[in-house]
UniProtKB/TrEMBL annotation:
Annotated active site: 84 (proton donor)
CDD domains named among the record's database cross-references: TBP_aldolase_IIB
Protein name: Fructose-1,6-bisphosphate aldolase, class II
Source species of the chain: Vagococcus acidifermentans
List of residues binding dihydroxyacetone phosphate: 178, 208-210, 229-232
The UniProt record lists the keyword Metal-binding: yes
Positions contributing to Zn(2+) 1 binding: 85, 177, 207
GO MF terms, alphabetically ordered: fructose-bisphosphate aldolase activity; zinc ion binding
Cofactor or coenzyme needed: Zn(2+)
Cofactor note: Binds 2 Zn(2+) ions per subunit. One is catalytic and the other provides a structural contribution.
Alphabetically ordered keywords of this record: Lyase, Metal-binding, Zinc
Length: 287
């Protein structure tokens, strides 16, 4: 069964580690993420963007897929199914349907509206034991059509947002979705420290986890980051492993074109990356 991410992340915050939140797109990725977490004896968050859920056939398919794989794969580590960057209507839909965690992302709206909607989502989610993430400021770059300005979060707005009762907060601290440009200034630890101080122990979320150097990841965790989102890096290793398989002509040998064989190297590469990131984030053995 799926668990809410609230307890998972409270423990992570207290224990000074972070839980990886990995985006899924299909059967193979979902298996790969579950496998990596199980082999690491680590809690894990599987998340779908609105677009990925649509691609997979809808939220109900995602719920059944994750729940049934937990059963059939014999997964014993805690697993949360989370909606990533959800609009208001989609967040409510996922709460209703059986996601165990949702992000309501109103960061593109005027702040007062973001706050009002967040309150409504929290009320509906908590009535069903579902955890809630909201965003203040903006994550730079683009993810699945969601484009952000990269504006640093205002600590006062962060405090107002956590006062709504959300379970964890995503704040823009110079992080960017997708790969980081050569001239990236790095995370703003000054902003992160101010936010952590004023929000008094609420778990913080680092979006755009792909391509952030380990030392910055570790410093961010020491300052209160308890959930780290990774998407692009999984896509990159999947594509690279699949390309290698095809370039080596392995799809032409025997029944190497069978999708169960063709997709196996990419799937294994995602599992490996998940295990590596779990080590980086410090959640190995924390299930
Ligand atoms: O919400 C998902 C993440 O923030 C993923 O970011 O693609 O840069 O790893 P990433
Ligand atoms: Zn994100």
């Amino acid at each position: 069964t799926l668990v809410s991410a609230a307890d998972m992340l409270k423990k992570a915050r207290a224990g000074k580690y972070a839980v990886g939140a990995f985006n899924t797109n299909n059967l193979e990725w979902t298996k790969a993420i579950l496998q990596g977490a199980q082999e690491s004896n680590s809690p894990v968050i599987i998340q779908t963007s609105m677009g990925a859920a649509k691609y997979m056939g809808g939220y109900q398919v995602c719920i059944h897929l994750v729940e049934d794989l937990i059963e059939s794969m014999g997964i014993t580590v805690p697993v949360a199914l989370h909606l990533d960057h959800g609009e208001y209507e989609d967040a409510l839909k996922c709460i209703e349907m059986g996601y165990s965690s949702v992000m309501y992302d109103g960061s593109h709206l005027p702040f007062d509206e973001n706050l009002e909607k967040a309150k409504e989502v929290v009320a509906k989610a908590h009535a069903k034991g579902v955890s809630v993430e909201c965003e203040v400021g903006s994550i730079g770059g683009e993810e699945d059509g969601v484009i952000g300005s990269g504006e640093l979060a205002d600590p006062k707005e962060c405090k107002a947002m956590t006062d709504t009762g959300i379970d964890f907060l995503a704040a823009g601290i110079g992080n960017i979705h997708g790969s980081y440009p050569e001239n990236w200034a790095g995370l703003s630890f000054e902003t992160l420290e101010k936010i952590a101080d004023i929000t008094e122990g609420i778990p913080l979320v680092l979006h755009g986890g792909s391509g952030i150097p380990l030392d910055q990841i570790q410093k961010a965790i020491s300052l209160g980051v308890s959930k780290i989102n990774v998407n692009t890096e999984c896509q990159e290793v999947f594509a690279a492993a699949t390309r290698k398989y095809i370039e080596e002509g392995k799809d032409q040998i025997g029944k190497g074109f069978d999708p169960r064989k063709l997709l196996a190297p990419g799937t294994a590469a995602v599992t490996e990356l998940v295990k590596q990131r779990i080590e980086w984030f410090g959640s190995k053995g924390k299930a």
